């Protein structure tokens, strides 16, 4: 046993002397310093002249520049090389529809994080890593919309969705309109929407509404068969007596406030306040004595002929009837009866 130990120590000592002698030789190269990412197959400490080493890259990296081999020269130096390694680059992934991706770069071991927009839930991995072969560790996830379920329906009401709904999975962004069964009125938000938190907007209520019988308007009539309370959205029509003209809506509506909508009014007709002279009414030129009856309805226009003394001709100046008031233009000078020509108005000189 003792002899065997002595033999081993003798071998190791001889080996050490061998490598020391090699290291002292000028034509022997030490192990090259190539950086952490550059690799060689042989890991011995010393190489004799003429030895060629093939260079490669660590996993997840690719070579560029060259040459890709180095040679131990007789001077004990390795030949020069610009061989370097760069990380593998993965292709840019697609952001999920209705979502985003976040990353700093796309190199080996980089991580891409995925998120979804409000109202959408991530289905799949929330992150992916760039692998050695340039592929991603997982497939891109999906962003699926939040489901609210069917919208709550108010008592005596309904909802009309903006699009066709199939099944009970009603997703974020779906909207609709609430309506009440007649004659109930809707109180609250008329529009419904599935929100990002998976809840519907607040549900309105359907309530009864009535309006008291309205009063008649001055110089008018209204279509009430009997005096009673009226339900929501019921209408009453108005008209005017004689030559009065209805101004405003033709009917009023019982609103959800329990009040009637704005009433119309009856506007009075006008008369043209001159005795002699000519006027134009509804496209016809007339002498005042032929204008019978002397009535111009509210909103209508009548033109009075004025005299241009410098040019010795007449021109028509328009004026409007507004609720019984019709102003005679200042340019009009009423002639005396003796000055009034008996000739046809259309034959008179016009400017």
TrEMBL record:
Sushi domain mapped to chain residues: 27-87, 88-145, 146-208, 209-268
Disulfide cross-links: 29-72, 116-143, 211-254
Signal peptide: 1-25
Primary localization class, coarse: secreted
A cellular component annotation (GO) from this entry: extracellular region
Locations listed in the record: Secreted
Molecular-function annotations in GO: heparin binding
InterPro entries in the record: SEZ6_CSMD_C4BPB_Regulators (IPR051277), Sushi/SCR/CCP_sf (IPR035976), Sushi_2 (IPR015104), Sushi_SCR_CCP_dom (IPR000436)
Gene3D superfamilies in UniProt: Complement Module, domain 1
Keyword list, A-Z: Disulfide bond, Glycoprotein, Heparin-binding, Repeat, Secreted, Signal, Sushi
Function summary: Binds to various kinds of negatively charged substances such as heparin, phospholipids, and dextran sulfate. May prevent activation of the intrinsic blood coagulation cascade by binding to phospholipids on the surface of damaged cells.
Protein's UniProt name: Beta-2-glycoprotein 1
Source organism of the structure: Knipowitschia caucasica (Caucasian dwarf goby)
